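Researcher: We're teaching a course module on how sequence relates to structure. For the next exercise, students receive a sequence and then see the predicted structure as tokens, so they can try to spot secondary structure elements on their own. Here is the exercise chain.
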Amino acid sequence: MKRWKIKFNLTYKIGLLIITAVLITSLTLNFIFRDHYKKDEIEHTEEHVMAMSRLEAPHFAHHILKNELQIMHKHITDYTSAVKYLSDIQIYDNEGYLIVDKNGLKRELPSDKKIKEAIQSKSMLHLWDGYKFMHFEPILENKEVVGFLYMEYNADYLPQYFAKRRTLFMTLTGIMALVFIAIGITLSRNLTKPLTAITDATKRIADGDLSVSVPVGSKDELGLLAENFNTMLESIKSAKTEVENYTKNLEHVINLRTERLDNALMELQQEKGFIEKLLSTIGATIAVLDREGKIIKVNRAWEDLRGFAEGEVKGKYVWDLMPSDSAHLAKMIFEEMLVYKAPTTFKIKLLTKDGKEKIAIANNVVITDGNGEVKYVIATGIDITEKEILEEHLMESQRLQSIATLVTGLSHNFNNILVGVVGYAGLLRIKLSSIDHPDTTEILKYVDTIEDSANKASELIRHLATFSKKAEFKTEETNLNDIVTDVIDMIKPTFPKFVTVESQLQDGLYKITADRNKIQQAVLNICLNARDAMPEGGRLLIETCNKDIIKPEHTLQKLGKYVVIRISDTGQGMDEETKRRAFEPFFTTKGLLHHTGLGLSIAYNTVKNHSGYITVESEIGKGTTFTIFLPAV
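Model: And here is the predicted structure for the students to work with:
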């Protein structure tokens, strides 16, 4: 009775497992294919309606241009009658008025908000309302929008279609499930017969009876298992006798060694605790690597710097957590250490979990085994990222300060020269006015050219004075939105029509203390730079917002409230070298004959003099974004 119960339980478990797997698989496939059919049919309906729209749009374009409303009404009536499930067609003129539909001629604006938005943006729109599909698109003639086409398709047949598909698939999956369940139950019963015999034998062996054996009923894997079991049982019988002979002698030896091991284990635990505390509290990062370069252990400072937990990086190659250029260097140095076994020190870039780059000074040493072969590499490091950034900003600041000093002297001397040029040009004009000569008018044009060139040079001098911080600032409390609005009003009439100027200005903007004219000039310079970056047209977006900096994101940021101006264009973008030199005086990609190269430098200097900072993000072919942070009052 007891034996029968074991066999029944094992069969029951295997059968239940097979039934559960088959049912879950069937239900999963049913849900997957049901959603697939529904999605496929909806996409087919959308493609069908949009195909009809593309075919009909050129036809209606011709009639809209000729104002043939009656012809369009007749065509709509005939077409909706001929095409099944097509419930309505509406035609709008290029001003957004509904002029004709299935019910006749009209002259009214649409009531649907989404259709109004699509007309305003001259874009395509399609949406579902239950099983009713509505498609709306502009009608083009010679790439100009002459009207809009609206098609309404009633797909009420879809629920019945989906129900038929679902019933068919559920029937098929049900039949397949029953077949597999029957097969699984049969197989489970056959498998449990030899396993039950082995189970009974192991129970008797556990009770101390080594005289049992398992019958070998087949030559398959189960038969092989029975043979191996019998062989193992014979080995156990032989080993039992030998073990009993050695047991008494080993007990004494084990007691002595156990005492020694307990003492050694206590010492090891104390040493381990000391090392773990040392690793967790030391400020430098520490990573233990095997001779293949895989991470075995890291300390807490390493986890804090890189953002990874030890379990996330254990078993990974250390150079897989570095940029590609640094990974090559690290791998090369690691291979040299395996050969020469000498300590190394070098500067290298690292990657954090969130993809940021860090710079560290790495110091590596090797640990060898008794044969002198490298067993471990201990890689320690000190984070010098902030130090590198500060040094770079210091060098940049010193370079700009040197240029500013040079510009101050240069602008003063150059201004003296211009005074002489303008003065003598005036004297020449007076002299020519008193001479009666046939070429006087032409010579006066030359004088005009001289004076015009001198005035342009004088304007350049004023820019130089601003850059070198000689111009005085007149600060007052102001709203940045007012400054940005003035700039937009200034550039919109002057920018080419193919450059769209847009703005998103936040209400309730913090007040700032600033020289209104200087900030306006800085924003204008960036906008002009954006215009030059879009020779074939594009979009210029100016945004303002408040920002409370609680945690600095980089070295230049300080805690506090800021007002932010973000100026984005869809122009040519900048590579890394151009972006690095963007605020450098006299640097321009257009040539000094056309641009002074001072626009962005003046903007940078103006923002800096207002205790703010400016950043630039750019990518070739995807545009550029300048972000100005100015401290709020």
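Model: If you want an answer key for the exercise: Residues 282-383 form a domain with the Beta-Lactamase fold (CATH 3.30.450.20). The mean pLDDT is 80.
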